[in-house]
Amino acid sequence: MSRLRDVNWTDALSYVVPVLAVLTLGLAWGRVLAPFVVVVVACLLAGAVLSAVHHAEVVAHRVGEPFGSLVLAVAVTVIEVALIVSMMLSAGGETSSLARDTVFAAVMITCNGIVGLSLLVATLRRRVAVFNAVGTGGALATVATLATMCLVLPTFTTTTPGPAFSPPQLAFAAVASLALYVLFVVTQTIRHRQAFLPITTEGEVIAVDEHAEPPSPRMTAGSLSLLLVALVAVVGLAKVESPAIETAVRAAGLPQSVVGVVIALLVLLPETIAAVRAAQRDRVQISLNLGFGSAMASIGLTIPTIAVASIWLGGHLLLGLGPMQIVLLALTVAVATLTVVPGRATLLQAGVHLVLFAAFLFLAISP
């Protein structure tokens, strides 16, 4: 009975917090916040993250996999793109590298942080994490292609000075990125859906969640609406907090790219929590769908949007990574490939990914 009360209390908070967070966002938007208000906004931001995870899981349970994994990934990425574009339009040339920094941070967070943490939880529980190598390998190949084409090639092109694409090159990268992302979604949800479903240790597909009845259509619609409200609150409050973050970064003498890393960490927190919860339920495939799917959506949706927004943006759009970031990306792809190919992972693979993630964070702070 006490458990039922806890669930009802949690559900009640998940409905109240997103609305309260959006109201606070409306009151705090465009204002200089006092230290106490910054703390309150941070608490509401954390509450909105937890609410987003709850409602995403409700929707995912209703629509089933692999559609459920797309819900949170696409929703968060769309709002992340809106945040990047709005900040670039408002600040002009000062944020010419913001898209690059945020997208690269998203790739490292998802492919090392989310994947590593999910494998850690799964291997501590079952010793060996089992997933479908065919579907996960296809997702990783798509992420590697998108990241190389959009974040590495601009460093080596010579049409324009600096690590930037020329307008025709940017247009090509945008169209190719969107086409690859759409092709992957079709593959994941229609053509080869079975390859992205959770499997047992014997390799049998787990098509449905047998532990609970799916929510009603009305409950699903309500959760979908509140998911969008919560995600708007997460990204909006993250932007409200960003001046305090930027001030702290400058005061600490840290590189400006750290701002993009912090924003990416905040925005991807719902997906991280959802992936860990899936790993706790022995649904490692869902965790990997969320991790690689989020990286893919971050590039495949951001670059086309930035390409369109560049019509109004002044100056060069810096997309090319530096040598250190390219090395980290190449090492991430190599390690992830060795993790994915066997279809099974142990605590060692989890540790390698988490060490890579720690290296990324450390080098972002101390390049």
UniProtKB/TrEMBL annotation:
Name the membrane topology term.
Answer: Multi-pass membrane protein
Q: Which key words are in the record?
A: Membrane, Transmembrane, Transmembrane helix
Identify the InterPro entries for this entry. Answer: Alkaline_pH_Ca-Antiporter, NaCa_Exmemb
Q: Which residues form the signal peptide?
A: none
Main subcellular location: membrane
TM annotation in the entry: 12-30, 36-55, 67-91, 103-122, 129-156, 168-186, 219-238, 258-276, 288-312, 318-340, 347-365
For the Sodium/calcium exchanger membrane region domain, which residue ranges apply? Answer: 35-189, 224-365
The cellular location(s) given in this protein's UniProt record come to: Membrane
- What is the recorded name of this protein? Sodium/calcium exchanger membrane region domain-containing protein
